[in-house]
Structures are given as structure tokens and as C-alpha cells.
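Reply to dn_fold:

You asked what the input looked like. This is it:
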Amino acid sequence: MRIEADDDAREPAETTVVFLGDLVDRGPDSARVLDMVAYLQTRRNVRLIAGNHEEMFLASFGSDRVLRQFLQHGGRETILSYMEDAEAYARLTIEELREQLPGLVPERHLQLLRSMDNVLTIGDYVFVHAGIRPGVPLAEQSERDLRWIRKDFLDADFDPGFVVVHGHTVAPDVMSGPRRIGIDTGAYLHGRLTAIALEGTARWFLHEEKASADPVSVVGA
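and this is what came back:
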């Protein structure tokens, strides 16, 4: 694992591994991703941030409307990672699929998803999935903004007094600025999975590439 190798190569430190959400959807094996994260929790200090895709996944169990939305945004791949039978999946109505979900998804995965935080503060860094609402104190941020906000956060010129580390908005390169760092480089779209390592004022990036590519450039945000 790239993160562990990087951590082992540096001076001993109390390391926290933070996942910024959207662990499910679009990829071919969401179920195995959740198992991997659960295993990692038994070995390291791991914190999980809830994304909008986890929100949709959980809400799908009780709503045909949300289930339809979920399926349009990668939910099909998530469900097939549990079902593994595309033909049987295709024969189901929305209502039948929703009724089968509790039998497909193990309780341990649901507990993992429900245990996720909306925001995490470590030193001068605030970790969220999507971003924050400018002008609103951190303690008063809405769950929806933390998981779904985009343009109002990305286009704002403001100083919250800390650095926001987020995902949610896909870009081919890391977006790194003085007040926010966006690290969703679109593994499903661009084939690049990115992690950021932070220690004091130092930051560096780790990348897992699906195929060979040019070195990643860091652009201002």
C-alpha cells in the first residue's frame, strides 16, 4: 500500500489515515473496498468522512426515488459488487431491487457507512468531503453542504482560518492553494487515485496510476 510504504520510510510519527468519502460507486468492487477499509481500521488510526455517495447508498434502502438517483451515479456498479449477476440485476424492478438490498449488503458494511463523520479537524486542517459554506462557522455547517457543495465553495474568495482538504469535485490534477486542497483526481475517470500527506507545514502527494502517465502537476486553486 502506497500510504504505508511512504509512512514507513519517514521518521516515526502518530499517523492518522483519513478517507474523504465516496468509497462506493463507479468502481467495479465497492464491496471489497469497504472490507479493505474495515481491515485497515484494525491496524491503524483510520477516520472516515461521509460523502454524498454513501448518503445516497444508505438512503436507497428506504426510497425508490433515491435508489433511482443512486443507480444513475454509480450505484449499479456498487450493487453488482454484492450481487455479481448482471442478468439477474437487469430483471429486477426498482421496487424489487430495494427490497433485496438488506439481503445483499452485509450489516458490517452498513455499520461502517453509518459510523462515518461529516468533518474532522486536525491542527490547521479541516477534512470534509465536498467543502464548506463560506461565511458559516464550522460548527454550524449543514450536513448537505459538507457532502454536496460545489460552486459556492470552489468559487469563493474567503479565508476560513484553516485549510480545507476535500474531494467530491473531480479534476485531472490536484487543486492546491493556501486555503483549500482538492485531491479527487477521478480514479474512475482519469485512472489516478491521489492521497495527500501532511506534516506541519509540509505537504506531499501520493498517486496510484491505472496506466503510465506524465508526472502530476499541482495547480493553484
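Strands lie at 16-19, 45-48, 120-122, 125-127, 163-166, 175-176, 180-182, 192-199, 202-209.
Hope that clears it up.
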